[in-house]
Design brief:
Elements: H1 2-25, H2 29-34, E1 48-50, H3 61-65, E2 67-74, H4 80-90, H5 115-120, E3 127-133, E4 136-142, H6 150-158, E5 163-168, H7 175-187, E6 191-196, H8 205-216, E7 219-222, E8 224-227, E9 235-238, E10 243-248, E11 258-263, H9 267-274, H10 277-293, H11 299-303, E12 307-312, H12 321-331, E13 338-339, E14 351-352, E15 360-368, E16 377-385, E17 388-389, E18 392-396, E19 403-407, E20 410-414, E21 417-421, E22 423-424, E23 429-433, E24 443-445, E25 463-468, H13 475-487, E26 492-496, E27 505-509, H14 512-526, E28 531-534, E29 539-543, H15 547-555, E30 563-566, E31 572-576, H16 579-588, E32 594-595
Parallel strand pairs: 2-4, 2-5, 5-6, 6-12, 7-12
Antiparallel strand pairs: 1-19, 3-4, 8-9, 9-10, 10-11, 13-14, 15-16, 15-24, 16-23, 17-22, 18-19, 18-24, 20-21, 20-23, 25-27, 25-28, 26-27, 26-30, 29-31, 29-32, 30-31
Helix pairs in contact: 1-7, 6-7, 13-14
Amino acid sequence: MKNKYKTSVMSIYGFVLLTLLAWSKSSSAFTLGSSRISKPLTSCSSAATEDTTSSSFKAPQPEIDRRRNLAIISHPDSGKTTMTEKLLLYGGAVQQAGAVRQKAEQRATRSDFMEMEQERGISISSTVMNFEYNNFGIRLMDTPGHQDFSEDTYRALAAADNALMLLDGAKGLEPQTRKLFEVCRLRRLPLFTFVNKLDRPALTPYEIIDQIEEEFGLEIHPVLWPIGDGDRFKGVLDRMDNTVHLYKRASQRGAKAEVELVPLSDTDRLQELINDDELFEKLLEDAEILAELIEPFDIERVLKGEQSPMFFGSAMTNFGVQLFLDKFCDMGAKPVGRVVSGKREDEEEELIAPEHNEFTGFIFKTQANLDPKHRDRLAYVRVVSGTYEKGMKVSHSRSKISKKYNLAQAQALFGADRSSVDVAYPGDVIGINNPGNFAIGDTLFTGNNRVAFPGIPSFSPEKFAYIRAPNPSDYKAFRKGVDQLLDEGAIQALRQRNDDGGGPLMLAAVGQLQFEVVQARLKSEYGVDSLMEPLGYSMARWVDSGWDAVDKADADGKLFGIMIVQDRWKRPVLLFRNDWKAASLANDEKYLDLKPW
């Protein structure tokens, strides 16, 4: 199993992990990671004005300290979106949790709001939910689980300070969970583990702990411990205060579960309520074993990503969800700073802390048509330091520092719903109107010193297809839809060399499902049909040394069977039918300087 895992990671995501390593430790990743989705800013933007003034935007310390953001990651069908809904329920953000595959009397989930997500019961785009809970500001990010949409998940993790790894209790570690764990490790994120679906037959807790510790080398500290599984799942032991939480299913679908609290020391009462001698005896035995064998809880090691607090429960039946939320508020990392890029290797890294006097933030996602009626486009900004204030003017990492952009309005996000905000602080994720100036990986800042955070790594596409509108009368709407979807960064556009827009348009994506999403969104959001013609290529490489190198290789007969195209910024791209051909060309013709992005 380990050999299979290593092969899978290296063949599909190996280069991404290398990029992430550079992204987390060096400054060079800014150029590499954002180069294919960021375009040079023009000076004709209506939102830009000349302004050289500067003022302090230092954030109040209490506002920084009370914020917690959390990205939820998992293999598909581990219950991630259901978990998100139940956290919203217990956080008081909704009165009734939605269902991924809802019946007539149930509402849809808040996080899966796209039509295709609701039809298929899967997440295809990361979403942000903001809510208040016990005087904490919670910023929750639900991410896609399917590998075809992993790029969106990786971008969400760039904005996160904490991650929740959700496991299916019956399956333990699964391929996508393994890949996403490596990203969390490279980012040194505090990682919480929640073993879900205990209302179904499951692996023993010891088996799951052994899987994680042996495969990841990550120390596990069980905070909650399950009592039974499947039909015999009774509740959990809170090992922090030795209190047993016994659950009853909610009387109404989507409502909170009923719970009774009993001290572990009250054995007579416990035995009566559990009403299962085998489970009762095992609970007492497990409690004693864990107290003797498990390493003590160490919050410093948790915040360094060296120890993972583990929880057990069932999001579907609401068991253990509120306990996790309470513990996360106490244990989770408050907003952390980011290292800036652009420094020379001989210089020390500069950290922009949340307490920095100026506002800084970076864009990790763009989204079109959250409100299809208005054809709007939003840029998702993670605030790193300082205070966002309504109407403030900011500089842009790809523009002259004297050029200012007016952030007239920002919005707090709750799935597809939005509400205006006048201020935002470090750890917050806000949506700002994007008329086309902002791209994924961009940095916004105030003050007279330029700030540029490392860019967000990109995936190399593995699927390619021509796309066209069968009805000529739909061409204008078709092009508008494609352009706006391209700005989101989930797909790329390629064309024949020297094609300025009149020739066939080729799309490139990480997975086949991304093509299906494009066609579905063109139909539902722009009202146009589209036809796709798949191409028999499986790998793209950017020629970093430019077109002269391509011409030389082509003249020497080295590019036989390789398709030569250009991206949106007219940079040369080579398409290959197999890995061997790409590796052979890279090795034999090193002057091409082939890159996977």
